[in-house]
Structure formats: structure tokens, C-alpha cells
Design goal:
There is one protein chain. This protein is mainly α. Helices cover 45% and strands 7% of the residues. The protein starts with 9 loop residues before the first helix and ends with a helix.
């Protein structure tokens, strides 16, 4: 498959990376409806889009496998720009996507603005939260990494280092785990953590009560994502600062 002869522009590459992050790796093909939709928005063929996503896979350090290798300098530059500034580029990519659809970005989020909060900052936070959820769930094939529960409505894109503790990695998918609502809450308050071998570790507080839904998974290896493997540095922070031994 060959790429389109029309040169790719920066904004187009940003949208392609946005889509690359949001769809499971195994669904990068010309029949994917999301690829077809983006192709129509950009005036390109689905083959051109899927080829570009495969190119990005070839430079994605989170993947053990490699895709196509015909990567341009601009591809690499925009890729690095995106992955070195998750918060800024997540929002910019969503903003560009709304513009090309003829939508206002604040129409994508449901807003109730608290006192002392500007509308702009709240919109950006909500947009980035939605992006983070989409990317993390796609990386785990929409299933809880502990239990395997595949019900999207019961799944949470859980931050390893909390949103409030690390502004730079709020939308970094390597700072995320896909958890069901119960395990997300237990992880958030430090009753559950993940050890260096990606196995579930429980707080002694849980071991002393009849919490079968949690105890049953102690020592179990989590299901690792197909890309954006949880970063050990972030997991170590959780064990040291949030987990309650």
C-alpha cells in the first residue's frame, strides 16, 4: 500500500496521531469506520490514513512490534511534539478536530462552572479527561486490566499519579490503567497497587475484612495493554505515596 502523493500538513498529522491513540492497534485497517470518517474529513483515502497510522506504529516506543517504516521527518517531528506535551497536544488535536467538523469545542463537554473557575480552563480539563479515557480504554481493548470486565459503562481510566499531583502527565496514557469502578476506587485511595512485576498488591486493611471481590485478585498479573505500557516510575510513585501497606 502506498501513501497519497499529496504532502501531509502538521494539522493533518496531529489528527492522525489523535486517532492512532484512540483506536486499538489491531483495528488499524481501511474498513475501520473511524479511519473512513477521518479520511473524508481530510479529503484522503482510508488507505492513506491507515498507512500513516502504521507509520506511527513503527516509531511508537511502547510497541514491541513495528509497522511500516516510511516515516518522514515531519512525521517524527509532530510525533515528538505530541508525545512530549501530552496535555497541550491532546487539547490542540481535539480543537482541530472540532474545527474541521464545524463544531465548537465546548459543545463536546457538559459544563457546570464552579466559582473561581474560568470556562476556558474547565473546557480544556474536560476535553483532556475525555481524550485520556478514550486512549486508555482503547489500549486495554475496553476491558478491566485486573478482572477482564468488558462493560465500558463500568470502566474507568484511572490515573496512576493523580490528576492533581502531576500536571505534565494528566493525559499521558502511560499514566493510566483501565479499571472497573470498584478497583478504580480501591486504587485511588491506596487499598490496591501494582508491583514491579505488574501484579496486584493489596493493603493489609483489605486483607483483614471480607472483601472477596478484591482479595480474589491479590498476586494476579494485570492484563497489559497492547501499547502505552504503564510506566514503572509512575507505579513506584503510587506505591510510595498513595498505597496504604
Amino acid at each position: 500500500m502506498k501513501a497519497s502523493g499529496r504532502p501531509w500538513m502538521r494539522d493533518e498529522l496531529i489528527l492522525a496521531i489523535n486517532l492512532y491513540c484512540k483506536i486499538p492497534f489491531g483495528k488499524i485497517h481501511i474498513r475501520n469506520p473511524e479511519i473512513i470518517t477521518l479520511a473524508k474529513l481530510l479529503g484522503r483515502s482510508p488507505g492513506s490514513i491507515s498507512y500513516k497510522l502504521a507509520n506511527f506504529a513503527s516509531i511508537d516506543p511502547s510497541l514491541p512490534r513495528k509497522g511500516a517504516a516510511n516515516v518522514s521527518r515531519l512525521d517524527r517531528d509532530v510525533w515528538n511534539e505530541f508525545f512530549e506535551n501530552w496535555n497541550g497536544m491532546s487539547y490542540e488535536s481535539e480543537h482541530i478536530l472540532c474545527e474541521i467538523r464545524g463544531q465548537q469545542i465546548d459543545s463536546e463537554v457538559d459544563l457546570e462552572i464552579p466559582k473561581g473557575t474560568t470556562r476556558e480552563s474547565l473546557v480544556k480539563a474536560r476535553v483532556n479527561q475525555n481524550f485520556f479515557r478514550s486512549v486508555v480504554l482503547a489500549s486495554y481493548d475496553n476491558a478491566c486490566c485486573v478482572t477482564g470486565l468488558p462493560v465500558t459503562e463500568l470502566l474507568v481510566a484511572s490515573h496512576i499519579i493523580p490528576w492533581s499531583k502531576d500536571e505534565n502527565n494528566r493525559t499521558n496514557p502511560r499514566n493510566g490503567l483501565c479499571l472497573n469502578s470498584l478497583h478504580d476506587r480501591a486504587f485511588d485511595i491506596g487499598f490496591v497497587t501494582i508491583d514491579e512485576d505488574y501484579k496486584v498488591k493489596l493493603s493489609s486493611r483489605i486483607k483483614t475484612v471480607n472483601a472477596k471481590a478484591l482479595v480474589a485478585y491479590e498476586g494476579v498479573s494485570i492484563r497489559l495493554p497492547k501499547r502505552f505500557l504503564p510506566q514503572q516510575e509512575f507505579l513506584a510513585f503510587h506505591r510510595q505515596n498513595i498505597f496504604k501497606p
